[in-house]
Amino acid sequence: MSDLNKLGLAEARDALRKGDVTSVELTESCLTAIDDADALNAFVHKTPEIALERAKAADARIKAGDAPSMCGLPIGIKDLFCTKGVPSQAGSKILDGFKPEYESTVSQQLADAGAVMLGKLNMDEFAMGSSNETSTYGNAVSPWRRGNDDAQLTPGGSSGGSASAVAADLCLAATGTDTGGSIRQPAAFVGITGIKPTYGRCSRWGIVAFASSLDQAGPMTKNVRDAAIMLETMCGHDAKDSTSAELAVPNFEAKLTGDIKGKKIGIPKEYRMEGMPAEIEKLWADGAAMLKDAGAEIVDISLPHTKYALPAYYVIAPAEASSNLARYDGVRYGRRAQMAQGDGITEMYEKTRAEGFGHEVQRRVMIGTYVLSAGFYDAYYNRARKVRTLIKKDFEDVFAAGVDAILTPATPSASFGLGEMTEADPVQMYLNDVFTVTVNLAGLPGISIPAGLDKQGLPLGLQLIGRPWDEGDLLNTAYALESAAGFVAKPGKWW
Amino acid sequence: MSIDQSTAAKVAKLARIKVEDDALPALASEFNTILGFIEQLNEVDVDGVEPMVSVEPMRLKRREDVVTDGNQQDKVLANAPDAREGFFAVPKVVE
């Protein structure tokens, strides 16, 4: 078999078990593709020795008839996950040289299930960004281009390296994390599938914290079946994360029947935004028509507080970030600034954090500090938390009325050029997450799947939002939509 | 509400991030853009609404108060920028 790196998880799993291919062959194919793709700047720490060692172990397990769910499948890990003995910097200069002495629960579960780690993937610094332009490693680049125009495009963010790597077939799948849309927006920008599960499904232990009440890990894959396989491996209760849910994890792949007859799909009128490109409007209408053809009932719904989700997010997420990032003080790990004669500990903190944090991270830490400061806590932080209660209630009301899933566009535009938003004010960049951020605030599962191309030839995604803890049903609806949309486009190789 | 340069300087100090004086006007202006966006929240009637603590109403679990970890000083110090004689080293804190 050739081009093994182009396989998805399910295809590769089946080929491994039939003995048509070995994990070492799969892994070598990916390692070659990675070395050939430095122009994408997706893999920022390569781990070929670990990969080949795990691949050999996986081949031995398969031979012995003891192959767990992801045995021998090569994947990439977002830099936000702590991986033992391997640099884990969260895309930040302040964690220069940090090699954890422990492994995150999610990456450990993947390793236990036999997955092969190829290396660490680029991302926005501390997952703060929507274009992978805030990384200390430099920009990750999308494998997609606008026709023959050679301008570099963003793979989205913050999981930009994961998106670029999966879309360019450098790995079979990758982990991502999603605080306001950081799995779903990049997945939509590069034409792949990404799911953020219900808050509490995946352990957050060992994942560098951004906004703890919003952060969730999830898979970024080439199709919905692969998402089901990998999500099941990543989920599960963990005593080391006090918000981890004590619920059994279903066999998600078994839920993929494609039968959605009688399902009620809500179309929220508040997501029809002024100035939305006609192509996205059409994609959304086409998606609804496909679900209807598959036997679902389409109903108009209202989520009245949608407009306030982004402003609430830009209070709550920076507030939590300012608290979480207080730990980067140049004492226990990472990088300490050079000190001048007579500098005390306060100067050490201030210089270390000024040098180690990039501009966007500094801005968010300071906004968070401000909204939590004496005199403003009630006006900003508590008000935002109350609005969050109302946003969650919007969804509860709709689900109580019998809606099974909600269909929306994944992003308000297709991918844009790297550097094109540099002059814009920060709020313009934040608008990228307008359709995804409500889902984090309400703790719900959301999936983005590729559904079409715009007139420049760039992928566009649709998002489905599901009931809490019902990722199985959500994946099945996504599976039906994927089958109907029949998205098969791939970027032409230029790198 | 508008943030002036002295407020921006105070916030930077609270966040323990060194900001040079000549960077303060631009910083204050960015804060004002973001806070202007956030102030839309004042349009929402939140009377009688509980502030959300956690998306899933849950009591945080407690475990037995026993030692479950420890005896790994080397590992704890392995990533420190300056570790000496089994401790983290920092500039003088107490005069």
Automatic annotation (TrEMBL), chain A:
SUPFAM superfamilies attached to this UniProt entry: Amidase signature (AS) enzymes (SSF75304)
Top-level taxon of origin: Bacteria
Active site, UniProt feature: K78, S158, S182
PROSITE patterns: AMIDASES
One record GO biological process: translation
Keywords: ATP-binding, Ligase, Nucleotide-binding, Protein biosynthesis, Transferase
Enzyme Commission designation: 6.3.5.7
GO molecular function annotation: ATP binding; glutaminyl-tRNA synthase (glutamine-hydrolyzing) activity; transferase activity
Reaction(s) catalysed by this chain's protein: L-glutamyl-tRNA(Gln) + L-glutamine + ATP + H2O = L-glutaminyl-tRNA(Gln) + L-glutamate + ADP + phosphate + H(+)
Amidase domain location: 25-475
Pfam family, one: Amidase
Oligomer and partners: Heterotrimer of A, B and C subunits.
Its job: Allows the formation of correctly charged Gln-tRNA(Gln) through the transamidation of misacylated Glu-tRNA(Gln) in organisms which lack glutaminyl-tRNA synthetase. The reaction takes place in the presence of glutamine and ATP through an activated gamma-phospho-Glu-tRNA(Gln).
Annotated protein name in UniProt: Glutamyl-tRNA(Gln) amidotransferase subunit A
The organism of origin for this protein: Ruegeria meonggei
Lineage: Bacteria, Pseudomonadati, Pseudomonadota, Alphaproteobacteria, Rhodobacterales
TrEMBL record, chain B:
Catalytic reaction equation(s): L-glutamyl-tRNA(Gln) + L-glutamine + ATP + H2O = L-glutaminyl-tRNA(Gln) + L-glutamate + ADP + phosphate + H(+); L-aspartyl-tRNA(Asn) + L-glutamine + ATP + H2O = L-asparaginyl-tRNA(Asn) + L-glutamate + ADP + phosphate + 2 H(+)
Listed Gene3D superfamilies: Glu-tRNAGln amidotransferase C subunit, N-terminal domain
GO biological process, one term: regulation of translational fidelity
Signal peptide: none
Alphabetical keyword list: ATP-binding, Ligase, Nucleotide-binding, Protein biosynthesis, Transferase
InterPro entries: Asp/Glu-ADT_sf_sub_c, GatC
Ranges in coiled-coil conformation: none
Entry protein name: Aspartyl/glutamyl-tRNA(Asn/Gln) amidotransferase subunit C
Gene name for this UniProt entry: gatC
